[in-house]
Amino acid sequence: MKVTIISDIPVLPITLGQELEKGGFTVQHALPDNKTFESPAACYGAGLSQADLARLVEMLSPLSLSPLSDPNLASDEVRLNLYLPENLNTWELDIMADTQSLLNKVKEVCVDSFGFSEDESEISVIERNELIYGSAPKQVRQLIRWFLKTQGIIVTEKQKFSSSDNDIYIHVKDPKADKLPPSSFRTPPGIRPYRTNKRSPYWPAVWGMSLEVPSRSRM
To answer: Is residue 174 within 8 Å of 104, Cβ to Cβ?
Structure first.
């Protein structure tokens, strides 16, 4: 199957294409053609095997693409239109991971490549893999979840912020952590071991810390 990827994010066809090539697909990259799509779509030629289409959809998950038959495409051809509703720098990422290597990887792809804005990043103890958001639309969240899936990480979504809040919190545990040396978990210079930002969904009891002030009778 030949897959052409069209996106307004220049690096996405490359990143996504590398994953699809691992699955045996032949990938071509194309530049955006300035068309406006109401939603991302997977356009396919008539006669395409449903088994091949299902395999492609599974590899793209959790990216949700509407399947559309296109008479202008050959029977073994698929065109992925991956347009997002807004520039990704609209959304500010707060990234927490339990290893330096995973923290670096998430920043490298989501901030440096995809173009999200970065608010804070920290190495911390992570209880569960989560993506916490306010106003971020489904397509934006799905892009982050798709990337994390390529790293072996499945996150749970929670909307904890207001519908006008552009923050996205990413809390992830390194699936390779049990194979890493202890030095991978140490807090490097310049990175706080815990947050003091009151906007955190875990403030004030951060990582099990109690901020209770003793009463005078106990002082």
So the answer is: no
